[in-house]
Design a protein that fits this description.
It comes from Rhodomicrobium udaipurense. This is Helix-turn-helix domain-containing protein. InterPro entries: DNA-bd_dom_put_sf (IPR009061). The structure is a single chain. The chain has 64 residues and is mainly alpha-helical. It contains 4 helices and 2 strands; from the N terminus they run H-H-H-E-E-H. It has one domain. The protein has a two-stranded antiparallel ribbon. Strand 1 and strand 2 form a beta hairpin. The chain is globular and about 30 Å long. The relative contact order is 0.20.
């Protein structure tokens, strides 16, 4: 079976960023990310892992 590059990319999990890291990555304040997450649907996509909120860098790039 021949594997393509995309098959390997699907197997490798991407690193998720916490709110502070996402803030530094995107140039938006932590407070703004929190407000966008709670009050608006215009912010970047996020996921909750228990109490922790994480962002995918690709979603942040798409949002910016």
């Amino acid at each position: 079976m021949i594997r393509r590059k995309n098959d390997y990319q699907r197997c490798i999990p991407r690193r998720k960023l916490g709110t502070k890291e996402a803030s530094e990555y995107s140039g938006v304040s932590v407070s703004t990310l929190t407000k966008l997450r709670c009050l608006s649907s215009n912010g970047p996509r996020f996921a909750k892992l228990g109490r922790r909120v994480v962002y995918d860098p690709q979603d942040l790039d798409n949002w910016i």
